Amino acid sequence: MQLRLQKCKTSDLELLSKISTQTFSDAFAKDNNPIDFKSYTDLAFSKNTLLDQINNPYISFYFVYRGEDLVGYFKLNENEAQTDGKLKEAIELERIYVLGDFQNLGIGKWMLNEVKKKGKNKRKKFLWLGVWEENTKAIKFYQTHGFSKFGTHPYIVGNDKQTDWMMRFDFKE
């Protein structure tokens, strides 16, 4: 399986909005109030929001391709673009998603390894992420790949205040 990364540019805005909405909806729509969920996705994945983020020098989106097929994407935040902590020695993995047709093929593991390489190459001390406390499958995945819980923070979906576990992976010197 040949996978490759492509950093997103402003010309990718339409595709980024589409894959963001699709993967988030596939993962979480069934577990949320439809009105709150739509309110969240309409804002978080709007072209205006995503354009602002693509143009932020501390935010990076990457598409993942298998051959010519777009199979997933991830989002990294540095410095003040992080959703919590905002430590210069850390990098946040805010989003990592694989399209449904391509799950259970090892793509998520490959993506996470690429994220770790990027963090290490940027000389960060640790990589962190937030994962919904009820997403036990994802929590187990991250634990299997060396992450440990170090706190919690709120994650707001519409008017629904949910709790994310904050998990971190420490880079070895």
UniProtKB/TrEMBL annotation:
Every N-acetyltransferase domain range: 3-172
Keyword Transferase attributed: yes
Q: Which UniProt keywords apply?
A: Acyltransferase, Transferase
Top-rank lineage group of the source organism: Bacteria
Q: Does the keyword DNA-binding apply?
A: no
MF terms per GO, please? Answer: acyltransferase activity, transferring groups other than amino-acyl groups
Q: Which PROSITE patterns match?
A: GNAT (PS51186)
| Record-given protein name | GNAT family N-acetyltransferase
